[in-house]
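Predict the structure of ERCC4 domain-containing protein.
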Amino acid sequence: MFQHYKNPMLLIEFDQNKSFTLEPFADLSGNMRSVNPNEAPSDLQSKIVLLTLAFPRLRIIWSSSPYQTAEIFENLKTQEPEPDPIAAVRAGLDKDMKAEDQAFNLEPQEMLGVVPGVTPQNLKNLILETENIRDVANMTIEELDPLIGKEAARRVHGFFNRNLIDLDL
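Done. Here is the predicted structure for ERCC4 domain-containing protein.
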């Protein structure tokens, strides 16, 4: 969100039929162990604290119900132009490509892009023909060959099937 929006916000909306609280509210004044990033946060409060520490520009909106959320958005929008849905969808997309040709989850693509044998040219075939990185990792050389070529298939397969501990030191 920070890459593509000027004012990123997180909405925490409660059910209108439930209490508007995060019980039990932990006392963080004496013991900061619950917000230690090296330990898994055990409660919602610590996760929110970690989130605000990691993203200090993030604004959090608290709402007691969907009705109040609508009121909050109405107040936030006062004196602002109507949002452009096309501009919102295009935020972060490559301006030179059609929206349907672009992927919205770039992390798996970036990960695949550094695998030996994967080039920008054959990456698109892998993206179009597989669901996720696990699919690529589990493919045989024969399955990869039509998508990226024999040599690239051999390198990709070798990468995903290499032993983590090399005993031939």
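The first strand starts at residue 9 and ends at 13.
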